[in-house]
Amino acid sequence: MLSAEIYKRVKDGKKPYFRPSLAEQVDEESYSEDLLSMIRRCWAEDAAERPDFHALKAIIKRINK
What are phi and psi of 16, to 5 degrees? Predict the structure, then answer.
């Protein structure tokens, strides 16, 4: 996201300011729900909700089966 896009989001009152919407980035019908869920968790505003690398490794292993 470019700084101009962030500025516009803040100015227009759109939230979240810095996390992209998944719908803006990908065609959700083209990906598995597990992958989309992982991406949403990685983009969570609250850092405590984001998976660590150990959790990501486990999720990726499960997706690739």
Answer: -75, 150
